[in-house]
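Service request form, structural biology core

Requester: graduate student, group of Dr. S.
Request type: structure prediction, single chain
Budget code: on file
Notes: please return the result as structure tokens.

Sequence provided:
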Amino acid sequence: MSASLALTHRPWWPWARRVAIWAFFGAIAWLLLKQARTIDWAEVFAALRALPGATLLAAGALAAASFGLYSTYDLLGRHLRKHRLGAGTVIGVTFISYAFNLNFGSLVGGVAFRYRLYSRLGLGNETITRVLGFSMLTNWLGYLVVAGAAFCFWPMALPPDWKIDGGGLRMLGAVLLMVSLAYLALCAFSDGHVWRVRGHALRTPSLPMALLQLAMSCVNWSLIGGVIWVLLQGEVGYPQVLAVLLVAAVAGVVTHVPAGLGVLEAVFVALLAHEVPSTRLLGALLAYRALYYLLPLAVALVAYLVTEARARRLRADAGNNYNKR
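Core staff response, request fulfilled:
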């Protein structure tokens, strides 16, 4: 019996695991609350209002470009699975899922919305699973490359009282780059190979497809970093803003806080407050949330209602055609 299996058969283990998880979340909440009490929110909102219109437009354009690019991720899965849904429909579903994913978490947006919308549009669960899995792989493959390059070649200037230094970040970056290179090597030498993982058959994509995944996702992560960098009006170098965003992205995934609410801000303040006043940082991040989270969510909600109506029409037409036989 493996160690993990043995632990699951001990009656105290599930309770200990729950206590540990809730203790971790409680510590995060306490830190965020403690930090929030030290901030002059009047100055934060003043910094938000002081952002020039041209800056907001430029940041909005980068956000739109990022959403547009991410919305094509599922087209890669469509190409591999060769399902019948049109490109416009796939892009719409991906956009809706991504917007809800950002604001309500991956299980609600990235997973639940994709399964609901794709199934109502006629795709089977196996196809949806493979499309979803390939899209998620594309996203995190780009993360490995961009984070690896940022940490390895442009390590961020950490606060003076931190124990980790640029050398540690360079080692982490090198590891991330090696993992991404290993994936590319696997695709190059095992094109078409089928791997069995928990009953699911996964086929290794070709090297050109893997390179396309890498290029799309790297550009997307770079665009997201560009949104915040523009909103900070160049007060911090772009590579450092991008590196901090990548750290915040993982922190948000680990904590499972919907929209990374508070986590994103805490990471930026912790890593950049020694270079930019906290009030200006938070003002820029509030603008980022409005442009990259809330505005797309409003559009996605309308698109979701339209997609649901279209799915109902398709099902009604299919039922009418069946009754005419």
